[in-house]
Amino acid sequence: MKDKYKIGSVKYLNAEPLIWPLEHGEIGEPIKIKRSFPGELPNMLISGELDCAIAPVAVLLEHPDLVPLPDVAIASRGAVASVLVFHNVPFDGIETLWLDPASRTSNLLARILRSMSKKLSCNYVIPTEDEAPGINDLPSGHGRLIIGDAALAYSVDSEIKVQFTDLGLLWKEKTNHPFVYARWIAQNGDIAAELAGTVRESRDWSVLNLHKLIEPLAEKYNFPVSLVDRYLRTNITYMFGPREQSGENEFFRLAKKLENI
User: Fold this and answer.
1) Is 24 among the domain residues?
2) Mean pLDDT per 10-residue interval, the chain, length 261 residues
3) How many domains does the chain have?
4) Does the predicted model carry a pTM greater than 0.70?
């Protein structure tokens, strides 16, 4: 990857196999990658602070001039384990859903899936810092969306007393499609064309050498080795093929319908 470009990524475990080879010089000279939360990366791309980044796909709805790179994504073909809604009533009965300010893509996914229910209407709240209720303290009829590494940790936390719904799994059940959470997205087609081969090579290196990453990543993120192994091998796919394209198209269609775009 050319060092003339400013590169960014979501700062979550699931992005590591895409950026590890780039940062550690496994496929060329090491490069510096700016990590940020999903909700911040779209503005960094739009403003020119970054030239290319692993960013949530919802930015493509609002900024179709941005260009996704082919073949590579952060996606799931079933349960994802890191995009979860916690609730104390059935998912279809949630009346107030606390969304996650970190990601518009996951918020749209939660709203789309909740809107598929013919039961009660739902109020959606994007909380300010510390405003959302604790997971074990959710009022009756409330749900809370948690994403990323926090959701992954909660999914195996024995102290969590409420149920949760995995939105990757629910999306698969409702649509029979994979779900695409993030992709490499560039400011323009020239950048996308120049970097496409490199990000594909980085992905391919990690797919072949994932066993070398599991323990270092478990230590870095303070997760059990078994959890990291299962998550990166089973829950996440880094391929973007025809099935993922169909899933992304369906998400965009439903999101536009939901927001009257």
Assistant:
1) yes
2) 83 97 94 93 94 97 96 99 96 95 93 88 88 91 96 93 97 98 97 97 98 98 98 98 99 92 54
3) 2
4) yes
